[in-house]
Structure formats: structure tokens, C-alpha cells
Inverse folding.
């Protein structure tokens, strides 16, 4: 897709306004319909983007704002993922999250290869199927007021760890995007790098933050801790891009680094202001790259198969190990882990930008994200209908522990 | 100044990081030296910009981020200017602020015309001398813990109203930037438009916000009130640019519209996160456009004369009416009103971008802003040395009322 000429300041403001308002409006409409907001926000991009109404041109500036938005989406996700909780996560949740990453990757890769796609393209589509988006499941469970049930805790524990695994897969896959073929040595080096980075950020970085705390709190700058956190966010995002992982991998771990101190420094409301403003431009950008002309025949078949595999693979990977506790448990945990989100979208974007994914494969990943995100909440509400009724009777708010 | 080719995502992240860190670092150093941060932030732009070290190219994207930063700087300023306080401001403060706007405009305009500059250029330089930056004076007075003295209240009352007048002048001047000559009819229409806009935003808009409050608080969107405020910010900024006023005039009044409800909706921390992140790019951009090669001979003379006139005119306009209360009072209020800030810088930017101001006149306004901002705090500390001593003895914190 060609980049249009730069817009004037006045045009830019109008574009920002139109994108921001339509995105938030469709998000609001989706939420009123008891659906997650993200598919609505993507829809805004599809409708106004160059493939449909073509109201908003694809300028460099809007793309850059979208990119900064993606960084803040992942920074916020990291800020809400406490390393302490990660370390405390039960062995069961850990096992489920690993199997829940392996199963979709293997199924997705096998299907794509059987269809005759290249190895790299198959790797990208498979990688996009890996990471559960914890936000949507957590929201649904919270709305049903059943966050404190054991099942909910297993799901959230697995989903939190799953985010970290998803980041690892993304880091490795983004590194692959530089070459045309998969070199196994290269893959090994990338995996090692990514794991080292993740372990450092989870176990060492929070201690550095704790050590620096007194100095940071003495700075004269207004909002000093936020400023330091933002500087580290930009540094790690650049560094991650520089060493060949995606920028958002750095952004996620920058958030993780500050997660344990976020409440003390009141970081969440300040960062949530930034994310509220910038995230819509990211989701709009994702939608605007979706080629609506592709939606027919074999594309739809593939999109449906990939979406079904995305659901099935989480039920197999995360649910089946719990078979001893009965089928309802298998389905609850499996469907709870089903929604894909920002990580899948960014894998798709990295693939599209590096030329590895065609517009069809990109579109399939976006549709898979939308389908899993939209299907999971109503199914979850159905599966948890008994717990909801119970909790409505003896509802005592309880602190959530993973 | 030519626009460089668009940077890659990786380059952009590196540029954002370098700009953010150097700007905040120089700001911090200035604050540790008991100086305001803004001149330090501008200095970062001068040093790394194309005229000195040339580390950071002038890309469209960075310029756009700077423009969004300017909008948030003025939105924050508006959010902290309660219309209720404006209406309550004493008649004395009102008179001082009007005279304090007229005096620098007349002196600045006369000097530029006498030097032989064109009328439009003279109008721009004069307009840049008009608006006091309340932030710096308020900070100095707060640091000295004398915000509750009568003198401080007069200064702050006049400075708050002065912001609104500065916006009016900017709106009119930005409208003039479209034509080459000053047409008096055009000027009249612009002034009427700007006054109508200001009165509407001060007296009608807050009531609309109050009316919409119940609906806004019922929205499902996360951070709903912030989202509505940001949408209105973008809309008014675009509208102000569209009808020929500067975008930031709209941004300021969008802030004003929500000022009375900002504490209730906890808007300040959320917006301050956005401003903390985006403002540095604005101040950096201002510095990066400063042509260091100009700093010699006649340029310096003019910059010094304009800076002296900027100080003198506030002492005359805001101080002299208080002569009955003695010379110390004249100087305290006059120097308290001296610092110029973001409004002056934006007048300079609008002038430079529209081609009305040459790089010399632009540089003179930037230097005038830096000089007045740096000189005021130490002089104020000297003038208020007695009050500081008194207050240290019988210091009881008292609520500030304007």
C-alpha cells in the first residue's frame, strides 16, 4: 500500500479527530451489545480505511502514531502483569500455558504447511495463534463477578504466563522476519536472546527499579517516576527493535519492570490516559490494512479453519490436561483461553510490513482475532451460568490471588 | 528548512528516546539550579537540532508529535484555569491584566516599526510579548510558600486572565497570518470571532458539560469522561485551525470547558501523563528551529532590547497602576507577570511556519521567552525575601483564593 503525501497540520487534526471518535464510538456500541470493544475499534479502521470508504489516507504520521499506540497498549499490559504474581503462579497454570502455546502453534503450522504455504509464512500464522489476550477473558469473568473462583484463577494464571510466552514467540518470529528462510542456528540464537531478555526483565529489572526508587523519588521533574518509566519504555522498545525482536516486546517488559511499583507511584491512571488516547490509532491502523476485497471463497474457508483451529487448540492445550475434573472444566478453561488480541495483531503487522505475509494471510489473522474475541464471551457466559447464579446468592467480594 | 525523508520505525523510536531523555535531563538540571525547566528543554532542541549538532533530523512525524504536544500543553493550561475563578477574579487583577497586555503590545509594535519591519511582522513580535506564562510565576511563589499573600493573589489573578487575553491576541494574529497586509475589516471580524469563541467557551460550554455529565458517567468505555474530553480537544483544535485561529486556542478553551469538573473526574493525573510524555517534543521542536548562526551583533542587540521591553512593559502595565502602594509592590507585580512561555513560543512558530516571521524574528522571540523566564525567578525571590522570612515564622497553610 503506497504512502500518501504528508498532511497539513489542519488535516492531521481532522484525521486524528475522525479516527479517535469513530474508533471509540464503535467500541462503545460493541460494549453496549455486551461484546468486547476491540473488534469494534478494528471495524472502524476497516470501514474508513483505504479499502472501503477511503476517508483516511495512510500517511507516515498516522502510521507512526499507531506504532506509538501499540507500544502503549503493550506497556499497559506489562504494567498489569506483576512479576511477583508470575513467580507465584501455580504449577498447573504454568503447564497449561505452555501446552496452550505449543498446541496452537503446531496445529496452525501443520495446516499452513499442508496447504502449501512457505515455512516462514506458516511460522507467522502459527505464531499469531499462540497468545491469549488476558484482557477480554478477565473482563468477562469480572463482569460475571466470578474472578475469585478456582477456575477463573487457573485461567488468569495461565493467561498471564501465556503473555510472556507469546512475547518470546513474537521476539523469535520477528527476528526471523529479517531472513527469507528459517535457519535453525539463527532460531536457536534468537530463542536464547529472547529468553535471556525475558528472564532478566522478570527477575533482575524489578530489583533495579527498587534500588533506584529513593533517587527517583527525589527528582525535581514533575511526574518524575512516570518520566523515568517512559524513558525506559522508549529505550527498551528501541533496543528490542534494534536486536531484531519487535519493539512491543521491549514495551511489554518495560511495563513488567514497573508493575510491582505501579500502585505505589500511581502509575496506572497516568499511563492509562496515554493508552486511552493512543491505542485507538493502533486498532484503527490494524483495521485499515484489512483488504475487504479478499473476503470471498477460499479466503473465508481458510479464515474459518484457522479460527476453529485457534479455539480447538486452546481447548486441547489448556483444557484437556484437566480432563480428570470433567468436561465442563475442560471447556471453561479452553474457551477462557481462546480470545486472541494485540499480540496476534502485531505478529500480523510485523509479517505484513516485512513482506513475509501476503494481504490474505494478514487478513486471516485479523479475522481470527476478531472471531475468537467475539465468540469467547457469550460461550463463557453460558458455561459459567451456574457459578453466576451461585455467586449472586452468596456474593462476598474477595481479593483475587493467582 | 527542508523536511528529511521519513524515518524507519526503529529510527523513530531512537529519535523519540533521545529527544525525550535529553529534554527531561536538561529540564532536571535547570530545576536543580533553581531555574525553570522550560529553557532547559528548549536548549536540548537547540543543541541536538539541525543548526548545531544535527543529531535529530526534522521529519514530518516528529513535527506532528510536537504539534500534538503543543495541544496538550495548552489543554493542561486550560484545565488548570477554572472559569469560575476567572469570573470571580478581582476588578483590580482584571484591570492589571488588560493593561499588561496593551503595554507590551504597543511597546513591541512601536519598536519593530521604528526599526523598519513590516506591519505584520511587528504585529507578530508584539503579540508574542503579550501573554504571561502563569506556570513559572506560580511555581516560584509556591516554592517560597507565599501563594496566600495578597500580592501573590493579585499576580495570579491577573496572570490567569492574561492567558485568556493572550489566546484572543493569538487567535487574531494567526488569522492575520493568511493575508500579507493587515486589513482593518478582517481584523475586526477576527477579533469578534475570537471574542465570541472565548465567551462561549467560558460561559456556555461548562454548562453543556454539566448537562452531559450524567450521560458521560454512564458510558461503558473505559475512562469514558477522559475519552469525551480528548474527542472535544481534537475537535476544537481542528475547528480553531479551520476558522483561522491557531489550533492551540481551541485546545486551551477545551481545557477551560472541563476545568471545573477536572477534580471530580480525576482528569488532571490522566491528562498530566499525556502532557508529560508529549510536551517535551514541543519544546524540543521550538529549540531545534533556532538558528544558532544568527547569534551575533545586531541580532543580539534586538533580542536584548525586546527582552528589556518585555520586562519593562509588564512593570508599566501591571505594576504602575499600583504605584499608590509603593515601588516594591510595583516591582513585585511587574516582575511576577514577566515570564513568557508557551503562548509566545506558539506565536513565533505560527509566524515562522506561515513565512511572516524570518528566522531572526523567530529567534528573537525564543530568546525573549528564555530571558524573561530565567530572570524572573531570582528577582522574585529577592523582592519577596521579607515575606518569605515572615512566612517561615508564622507559616500556617491557607487555601489560595484568587
Amino acid at each position: 500500500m503506497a504512502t500518501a503525501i504528508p498532511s497539513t497540520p489542519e488535516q492531521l487534526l481532522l484525521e486524528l479527530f475522525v479516527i479517535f471518535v469513530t474508533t471509540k464510538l464503535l467500541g462503545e456500541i460493541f460494549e453496549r451489545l455486551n461484546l468486547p470493544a476491540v473488534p469494534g475499534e478494528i471495524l472502524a479502521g476497516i470501514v474508513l480505511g483505504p479499502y472501503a470508504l477511503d476517508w483516511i489516507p495512510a500517511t507516515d504520521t498516522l502510521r507512526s502514531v499507531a506504532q506509538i499506540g501499540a507500544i502503549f497498549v503493550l506497556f499497559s499490559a506489562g504494567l498489569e502483569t506483576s512479576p511477583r504474581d508470575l513467580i507465584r503462579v501455580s504449577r498447573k497454570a504454568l503447564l497449561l500455558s505452555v501446552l496452550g502455546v505449543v498446541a496452537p502453534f503446531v496445529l496452525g503450522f501443520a495446516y499452513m504447511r499442508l496447504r502449501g504455504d512457505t515455512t516462514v509464512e506458516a511460522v507467522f500464522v502459527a505464531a499469531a495463534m499462540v497468545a491469549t489476550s488476558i484482557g477480554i477473558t478477565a473482563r468477562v469473568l469480572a463482569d460475571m463477578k466470578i474472578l475469585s473462583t478456582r477456575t477463573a484463577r487457573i485461567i488468569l494464571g495461565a493467561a498471564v504466563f501465556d503473555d510472556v510466552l507469546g512475547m518470546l514467540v513474537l521476539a523469535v518470529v520477528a527476528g526471523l522476519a529479517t531472513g527469507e528462510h528459517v535457519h535453525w542456528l539463527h532460531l536457536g540464537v534468537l530463542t536464547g536472546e529472547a529468553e535471556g531478555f525475558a528472564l532478566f526483565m522478570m527477575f533482575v529489572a524489578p530489583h533495579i527499579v527498587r534500588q533506584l526508587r529513593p533517587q527517583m523519588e527525589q527528582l525535581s521533574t514533575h511526574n518524575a517516576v512516570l518520566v523515568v518509566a517512559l524513558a525506559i519504555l522508549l529505550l527498551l522498545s528501541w533496543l528490542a527493535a534494534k536486536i531484531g525482536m519487535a519493539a512491543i516486546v521491549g514495551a511489554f517488559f518495560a511495563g513488567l519492570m514497573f508493575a510491582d511499583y505501579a500502585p505505589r507511584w500511581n502509575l496506572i491512571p497516568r499511563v492509562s490516559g496515554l493508552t486511552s488516547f493512543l491505542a485507538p490509532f493502533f486498532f484503527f491502523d490494524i483495521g485499515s490494512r484489512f483488504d475487504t476485497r479478499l473476503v470471498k471463497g477460499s479466503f473465508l474457508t481458510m479464515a474459518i479453519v484457522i479460527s476453529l483451529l485457534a479455539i480447538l487448540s486452546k481447548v486441547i492445550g489448556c483444557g484437556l490436561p484437566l480432563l480428570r475434573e470433567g468436561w465442563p472444566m475442560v471447556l471453561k478453561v479452553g474457551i477462557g483461553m481462546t480470545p486472541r488480541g494485540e499480540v496476534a495483531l502485531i505478529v500480523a503487522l510485523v509479517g505484513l510490513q516485512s513482506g513475509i505475509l501476503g494481504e490474505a494471510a494478514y487478513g486471516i489473522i485479523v479475522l481470527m482475532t476478531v472471531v475468537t474475541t467475539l465468540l469467547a464471551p457469550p460461550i463463557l457466559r453460558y458455561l459459567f451460568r451456574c457459578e453466576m447464579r451461585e455467586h449472586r446468592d452468596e456474593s462476598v467480594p474477595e481479593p483475587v490471588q493467582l
Notes: The CA atoms of residues 273 and 279 of chain B lie 10 Å apart. Chain B has a mean pLDDT of 86.
